[in-house]
Amino acid sequence: MISLQEMGQRACEAKYSLQKMTAEQKNQALLAAANALREEAEEILSANREDIAAGEANGMHPGMIDRLRLTKARIDAMAEGLEQIVGLEDPIGQVMETFERPNGLVIEKKRVPLGVIGIIYESRPNVTADAFGLCFKTGNAVILKGGSDAIRSNMAITKVLRESLNTVGVTPDAIQLIENTDRSATSAFMKLNEYVDVLIPRGGAGLIRAVVENSTIPVIETGTGNCHVYVDKAADLDMAVKIILNAKTQRIGVCNACESLVIHESVREEFLPILARELRSKNVEMRGDEGVRIYLEDCIPATEEDYGKEYLDYIISMKTVSSVGEAIAHINKYNTRHSECIITDDPAAAEQFLNEVDAACVYVNASTRFTDGFEFGFGAEIGISTQKLHARGPMGLKELTSYKYIVHGKGQIRG
Amino acid sequence: MISLQEMGQRACEAKYSLQKMTAEQKNQALLAAANALREEAEEILSANREDIAAGEANGMHPGMIDRLRLTKARIDAMAEGLEQIVGLEDPIGQVMETFERPNGLVIEKKRVPLGVIGIIYESRPNVTADAFGLCFKTGNAVILKGGSDAIRSNMAITKVLRESLNTVGVTPDAIQLIENTDRSATSAFMKLNEYVDVLIPRGGAGLIRAVVENSTIPVIETGTGNCHVYVDKAADLDMAVKIILNAKTQRIGVCNACESLVIHESVREEFLPILARELRSKNVEMRGDEGVRIYLEDCIPATEEDYGKEYLDYIISMKTVSSVGEAIAHINKYNTRHSECIITDDPAAAEQFLNEVDAACVYVNASTRFTDGFEFGFGAEIGISTQKLHARGPMGLKELTSYKYIVHGKGQIRG
């Protein structure tokens, strides 16, 4: 097992060779990696079976076992993921702007890789291949730290990817995995500023908080979503039911699912019984304030904590307001800056909501479930940023780049 | 003195009202602030005299006293700075991209303020007004933490600015100053994630390192510059002398000054005596490797530490290389990712250098001293970023913004 320090050095050397590669060279390597995953599927599955067995022996929750489990189909999906990345435009080298100064200096702003990206993630082993693909396409070296439950699977996937790079003459250090599963290794990784340019945590709220609090490397915070749907007094109520059901129940464990309903008092009487019927049919537990509960006898009282919570479960909180301004204030107080929606036919209410709600993605009359790199047409996604620095919302290839200024002179000096 | 928690809350309330202001409203407030600085100059100067007296009593270095000192002219320059910001285009509200998805969703990417910006800086009190002006124009609330040496001056300036905002009906909490000069207040400020979106340190390497290591708020690292000039074998040597002299001595205490010369072995014999004559005339101490010292008897041996050092002084380190590749490797090992220059008439050497050197700004045949928001034509500068996340190089108004995605639907749900 090599030291973190040495991994950092190797990643730095790799980044200089990756940034020189053409899009065509990178695509060939990605195709080789996709083939290797398919060809070596049995090796990966065998390592994965060991992880599963260890998980079961440790009494791991069945839902977690499912996240951890690889199958031939899932490995094939990982390979397809890499092939899809081949089809995307390479942003590296794009000239974003060119300007000439009065003194004759010509300044180009050119897209470059970030350099070395660190990714800390939880138990899904497919992240290992996905993250590699996106980082590699954008000329970045990646250092991965996966969950200890998936260590054998991640090691097997990394080995296959590294060997495939070797066969096409690309430095295998484009992808490195931290094999030490101690927490101390994670702590040290988060302070590897000398080598790592950016750290991206992918996982639950606890993991993300730990990284934000302990990393000295710049972090892109991703993924926590306490998303609201606000039903305005001018809402199309049929549409509102469909959107809330979709946003709440189409997939419950995801960051862009709706966790909270905000409702204008004037539509409660008509709307709540219809909505509640649908929510009950999906076994969604309702937790509301007094203004909601007078219309719904099976709605239990919501606490302050409910309004701040990302349930990721069949539960929804409900809050009554008397104006769009009050809805905005409630959302800005409790949301995680992820995705927020207003259902209304009133353009003025929509505009106020879209402008004043503080979130990466604000919707009028559409489900919050669309906050996603693929749904946005980016073709890929490394995560959904909930911070404002660098990237906000779905992050595709462009969001894994930086830029540099290239200045062409003829001997200019400053006066 | 109000608590940090309360300052955070006030800044958050202020940010919601600032983001609604039009460019015209913001400009009126900036003009009022500029007038107020001029009208209340005596009050500010009186506070500044107390800071100076305290500094002198504590044996403060005369150079530091000079940085701390305000005069009528310097206050006028602060007011002019605000007036210049009025003339710059307001980036807020710009639609950066619009795209329609196959399902009919129309997505706009719109520029918005970052929200609340924290700035930690050292003794120049003019930063108080400058930082306010840039943050205010971009709709951000700012919380400032200046050096304890300038606390009376900063309080006086902040008071004048806050009162001027009040008179034009703008929330004074657009600018707040942390008056507690304890280190503990700085530590707590760096962990105010609930309210502060970004922290920008402005000052020496020690301050910046302390912020990077201790802040849990996203940081934009600014300002440390160990900048190199590489004289290639195909260099115009007259041009090289002029550029090195300018980059090294035009102003020594700044981050874009040249700290290190890298020289191709084949031009040493002709070039070094000419350059050395000029450097001696400016009293620049030379510290070089053996390959340089055989041509310069007054050049003292350079240590490993010299190559990594931002002198901010009349000292230059010198290193011999035998190729542009070796020059690039040396620079990438020791630089601070700020500004790097190659002097050459060989387009291939220039291209390799510009592509492979890892720095915010890379130059061919021009002084590194041009890395500056004004010189780049941004009209203003909050600092020079040496990190790759968010902004790189000179940061003007646009770099103080984020974006949000505004999604217009007609009832779309995800299938």
Could you explain how this protein is built, in words?
The structure is a homodimer of 415-residue chains. By secondary structure, chain A is α/β, with parallel strands linked by helices. Chain A folds into two domains: 237 residues, Aldehyde Dehydrogenase, Chain A, domain 1, CATH 3.40.605.10; 144 residues, Aldehyde Dehydrogenase, Chain A, domain 2, CATH 3.40.309. Chain A is built from 15 helices and 16 strands. In chain A, strands 10-9-11-8-7-12-13 form a seven-stranded parallel β-sheet, sandwiched between helices. The radius of gyration of chain A is 24 Å and the shape is globular. The mean pLDDT of chain A is 96. Chains A and B meet through helix 10, helix 15, strand 13 and strand 16 of A and helix 10, helix 15, strand 13 and strand 16 of B. Strand 16 of chain A pairs parallel with strand 13 of chain B, so a sheet runs across the interface.
From the structure provided, what is the oligomeric state, counting identical versus distinct chains? homodimer
**How many individual helices of chain A?**
15
Which ranges of chain A are low-confidence, i.e. pLDDT below 50, for 5 or more consecutive residues?
A: none
| Beta content of chain A | 15-25%
* Estimated helix fraction of chain A: 40-55%
Q: What CATH first level of the largest domain in chain A would be assigned?
A: Alpha Beta
Q: Tell how many strands the DSSP assignment of chain A holds.
A: 16
Shape of chain A: globular
CATH 4th-level superfamily of the largest domain in chain A: Aldehyde Dehydrogenase, Chain A, domain 1
Q: Any idea what the CATH architecture of the largest domain in chain A is? A: 3-Layer(aba) Sandwich
| Main interface: chain pair and counts | A-B, 66 and 66 residues
Biggest sheet: strand arrangement of chain A: 10-9-11-8-7-12-13
Instruction: Work out the radius of gyration of chain A.
Output: 24 Å
CATH topology of the largest domain in chain A: Aldehyde Dehydrogenase, Chain A, domain 1
